[in-house]
Amino acid sequence: MRDRGIGCAVAGPQSCLTPLVVRLPLDLLRSEMFLTGAGASDEYVQRCVDEILLPLLTAPRAPPE
Q1: pTM more than 0.70
Q2: Is residue 62 left, alpha or beta, with left meaning phi > 0 and alpha meaning psi from -120 to 50?
């Protein structure tokens, strides 16, 4: 996903991909499946990408100290 985002000029190579950020998409899907007892809808996946993942990957980052 990171390589696709960089290729599309969405996420820069400096984006902060911590283990938590990398794990987030699967955790969200797992949570949705657990709560609803069914698979995640296409709309849910799209909203997660648009409202959570992309803003997280494209947010300005403070330079490392």
Answers
A1: no
A2: beta
Q: Which two structure tokens, joined as six digits, stand for 62?
A: 């403070």
Element (H, E) at 35: helix 19-36
Q: Can you give the pLDDT of all 65 residues of the chain as single tens digits?
A: 445 444 444 555 555 678 888 899 899 999 999 999 998 999 999 999 999 988 888 877 766 66
| Per-residue tokens: 10 | 């969405």
Residue recorded with tokens 């938590």 = 20
